[in-house]
Amino acid sequence: MQNMNTAPILQIEDIHKDYGTYQALKGVSLSVRQGEFIALVGPSGCGKTTLLKQIAGFEDATSGRISIDGRDMAGVPAAQRPTSIVFQKLALFPHMTVAENIGFPLKLRKVVPAEIAARVNEMIALMELKPIYLDRLPRALSGGEQQRVALARSMISSPKLLLLDEPLSALDVKLKKVLQSELKRLHRSVGVTFVHVTHDLEEAMMLADRICVMRAGHILQLGEPADIYYRPADAFVAGFIGETNLLPVEITRRGKDRVEYRGTGIADETGAIPVRFIADQVGTGQALMNVRPELIRRIGPGDKAECSMNAQVTEIFTKGGTVQYRAHTPEGYDLAIEIQGTSDLPMRVGEDVRLGWAKKDIWVLPAGAA
Questions:
Q1: What is the dihedral of CA 136, 140, 144, 147, to 10 degrees?
Q2: Which residue, 86, 133, 228, 359, has most beta carbons within 10 Å?
Q3: Cα dihedral 68/93/45/62 (nearest 10)
Q4: Which sign does the torsion angle of CA 25, 29, 35, 36 carry?
Q5: Beta-strand pair 272-274/258-262
Q6: Dihedral sign, Cα of residue 63, residue 69, residue 72, residue 73
Q7: What pLDDT does residue 1 have?
Q8: What structural domains does the chain harbor?
Q9: How many CB atoms within 10 Å of residue 261?
Q10: Using one digit for the tens of pLDDT, what is the confidence trace for 323-363?
């Protein structure tokens, strides 16, 4: 994590937000460290944008407390908070030049023109925009250049928190990749704390120091990208954060260091894994074995795997850099397998195969609907 210490810059404590009888946020608590890049993800209506509005001061919480840099934000209007926000719709002023758009927050604060001009030039350099753009109107710029102008405007007042409400979602794939790299570079360069709302899970994995997964007004899991991906809290997080395989198993014994299990159709010599590969809330009884598609491989004649299943290939999806296979087991399970892209496909539709994975790649979750 870049430019970050352990002191919280943003403290959210038991925030509730009601719209009449509808509860958008149901007791959300979150601590964000100075200099951190945190992504809020979740399905539509989960509360992530509502939470961003509470931080920005656009709406008042029904109850709870938000503090920024140790100061309680209760009663502090949006314009007086040490935050800046970039929306999906950039809201650049069409009648103002690029220089006027970028410098507008400082003009509102009655900063002298010479200082505004100096700061605008700093922002132009930071965002790698050409100085000749300063006298142009936003419509003369490309979509990516307009995004950079919006980011420059948001950063010119040196906010303690930069709030990003899906600013890249309307861009084409190629331009989005470029600007994702720009966001990462900007965060590394300025050390400002970023809170980023996104539907793009790959974007969250690429950019964030930590990811906050929300559902129905609650935070389900908060953690570093690898933890969220490989050690999800439950079946919903596992499926939401990326495609996965969830196989029903029964935990027959949970000891201090070792967990014993059995799963229909899963060949396993010992039927046991270390307790560190199982979620804390899993006890004896029904559970789900989570194995990501890229961790499953085909087992050839004479090869061995700690866990394995028989299956028949049903579909092939080529993705350029990777190839994904779908396979169906005699027990009725559908598995996804993803391998490095190749022009010579190692499996064919209709082929009977044996698939295996290592125990170090297992993560056992509580049973329940995703």
A1: 50
A2: 228
A3: 40
A4: negative
A5: antiparallel
A6: negative
A7: 46
A8: 10-235 (3.40.50.300), 243-366 (2.40.50.140)
A9: 23
A10: 999 999 999 999 999 998 766 678 899 999 999 999 999 99
